[in-house]
Amino acid sequence: MRRASVKIVGGDPVITVDPAGGDFNGVINLSKTWLQKRGLKAESVFVATVVGDSMQPRIHEGDLLLLNQADTTKRDGRVYGFVHAGRFVVKRLRKDGRRWLLTSDNPEYAPMEAIEATKVVGRVVLMQGEGV
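User: That's the sequence. What structure does it adopt?
Assistant: C-alpha cells below.
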C-alpha cells in the first residue's frame, strides 16, 4: 500500500489527497457534509492506494481506500489498515476463538494471526475503484 495524507483545502468543501510517491497524483472530492454525516474529521482520515491482489475480488490494485484513524475498535468482518510485521497492510479482521486473524478476500493468501505488535491504523470507510 502507498499512503497519502488528506486535508481540507482552503474554504472549499473538498478534500484533496497529497501525492505520496508512486502513481497516485490527483484529487478525491468529498464534501464536508459527507464527512460530517459519517462522523469523520479531515485530520483523522488518510488515503491508501492498493498494491497487489490479496483483497480481490472486492478490492483491486490501484483502488483508493479512505481510512478512518479514529476507528480502531476491532470488529469481526470489517476491513482495516494495519501495521503488521513492519508493513502497512489492508486486511479483513476475523475473530477465531480468542485470537484475531488478518485475512485476505483472495483465497490464495493464508490468514495472518494478529500479534501483540499488530496495530490497527484505521477502518476502511470508502473505496474508490474503476467501474466495470
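Confidence is low (pLDDT under 50) at residues 1-21.
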